[in-house]
Design brief:
A hairpin with a 4-residue loop joins strand 4 (about 155) and strand 5. A three-stranded antiparallel β-sheet has the order 1-2-3. Strands 5-4-6 form a three-stranded antiparallel β-sheet. The protein folds into two domains: about 1-130 and about 195-215, no CATH class; about 140-195, Zinc/RING finger domain, C3HC4 (zinc finger) (Herpes Virus-1), CATH 3.30.40.10. The relative contact order is 0.15. It contains ten helices and six strands; from the N terminus they run H-H-E-H-E-E-H-H-H-H-H-E-E-H-E-H. By secondary structure, the chain is α+β, with helices and mostly antiparallel strands. Keywords: Metal-binding, Zinc, Zinc-finger. One of its GO terms (molecular function) is ubiquitin-protein transferase activity. One of its GO terms (biological process) is protein autoubiquitination. It comes from Arion vulgaris. This is RING finger protein 141.
């Protein structure tokens, strides 16, 4: 995950704002059957310091669009936002086949320009040169400890582990950090379960469930 770390070092505040706007646009297209959707917004005052990359917090809100009520929320660090951004954009990108994209671009020059803008926005975090590495699923999902079994859990530091290795690390109750970088892991909110790729026909419902479910992982809805 070196590229994520490198992106964190070079990303600008404008890039963050653009990516938040992009996720909000995407989220509006994936309102679930109950009328719930996600909205991302920078927490007021969290990005006003010189070291804003360390202090910034992005609020992820689950909103009931029928009542305009915020049902739950969670605060994301910059690193957590990057991970979620990457996950959402990758999942949404699978909903359109390359043939469909080419057809849309050919029939609409405006869509072509919009697509180029989207690529520039995404490239602020994930350069096009990373696609080859991301396509190598076996390498991407390899456990960082044993380097043998497939990883099924990812911590907030973006390191991935198989269930056996992370269980061995935490079973004595003495370790509450990442085995590699020693980043503190406070609990379930700092852990993501890695899912296998599913049939493309299931992606639309999967993305809706994923998007709306993100905010439910907060312990304190008022955080």
């Amino acid at each position: 995950h070196f590229e994520i770390v490198k992106s964190l070092a070079t990303v600008s505040h404008r890039d963050i704002v653009d990516c938040i706007e992009e996720l909000n646009t995407v989220s509006r297209s994936f309102t679930d059957r109950a009328g719930k959707q996600l909205r991302f917004i920078i927490k007021r005052g969290s990005d006003g310091t010189i070291v804003w990359k360390a202090t910034i917090r992005i609020r992820c809100l689950k909103i009931n669009t029928n009542t305009n009520v915020i049902e739950s929320a969670r605060l994301l660090t910059l690193r957590q936002f990057v991970v979620i951004y990457k996950e959402i954009i990758e999942r949404v990108s699978t909903l359109s086949s390359p043939q469909e994209e080419e057809s849309c671009i050919a029939n609409s020059p405006e869509r072509s320009s919009a697509s180029r803008r989207d690529e520039l926005t995404a490239s602020a975090f994930f350069p096009m040169s990373d696609k080859t590495e991301l396509d190598d699923e076996d390498t991407e999902n390899e456990c960082c400890v044993c380097m043998d079994r497939k990883a099924c859990l990812m911590l907030s530091c973006c390191h991935e582990f198989c269930e056996i290795c992370i269980d061995n690390w935490t079973k004595d109750g003495l370790h509450s950090n990442c085995p590699l970088c020693r980043t503190l892991v406070s609990g379930a909110d700092d852990t993501w379960v890695l899912t296998d790729k599913t049939d493309q026909r299931d992606y639309a419902s999967e993305v809706r469930g994923y998007l709306v479910g993100i905010a439910d992982r907060a312990d304190d809805p008022q955080s």
